[in-house]
Amino acid sequence: MQRPSCAAAGVAVCAAVCLALLVCAATVDAKVQAVVLEKPDSCPRTARKGDHLELYYSVEIEETGQLLDDNFDFRYPQKIELGKFTTVPKGLHVGLTGMCEGEKRKITVPPKLAYGVRGEGQVPGNVHLVYIARLDTIIRHGDEL
């Protein structure tokens, strides 16, 4: 039986370390970053799954600075149901969770929680999306409209 050489053992250790570093990098990259830019004086309730939210936002590609959408100048806010991933990426839902009415956040969404490696529409694959979002209204089940 042939004994493995030190070089072969070194390569195996190096490969294991590289794999561990890749796994760690992927885990860190998959996190949404939310930074509070403005917060109201009072916050009687925060956004949670199932709430209907009315918000104003802009979104750009972090890597290029290309502006994709901006509704801050619109008369009516964008409406979404928090936790229902039909119109905006999952990562934006993560970043909006816990927001107060009147709060403004910068939300950076990694590719994995945006449009992945393939992209969608005018969004290329493997890009981070940066949202500036201001939550206007939280409508909770049971609220009078």
Automatic annotation (TrEMBL):
Keywords from the named record: Isomerase, Rotamase, Signal
EC numbers: 5.2.1.8
Classification via InterPro entries: FKBP2/11, PPIase_dom_sf, PPIase_FKBP_dom
Recorded GO MF terms: peptidyl-prolyl cis-trans isomerase activity
Catalytic activity: [protein]-peptidylproline (omega=180) = [protein]-peptidylproline (omega=0)
Keyword Cell wall biogenesis/degradation: no
Leading EC class: isomerase
Any single Gene Ontology cellular-component annotation: endoplasmic reticulum
SUPFAM superfamilies reported for this sequence: FKBP-like (SSF54534)
Cleavable signal peptide: 1-30
Residues of the PPIase FKBP-type domain: 50-139
Name of one Pfam family that matches: FKBP_C
The UniProt record lists the keyword Signal: yes
PANTHER family hit by this protein: PEPTIDYL-PROLYL CIS-TRANS ISOMERASE FKBP11, PEPTIDYLPROLYL ISOMERASE
Protein name: peptidylprolyl isomerase
Protein species of origin: Porphyridium purpureum
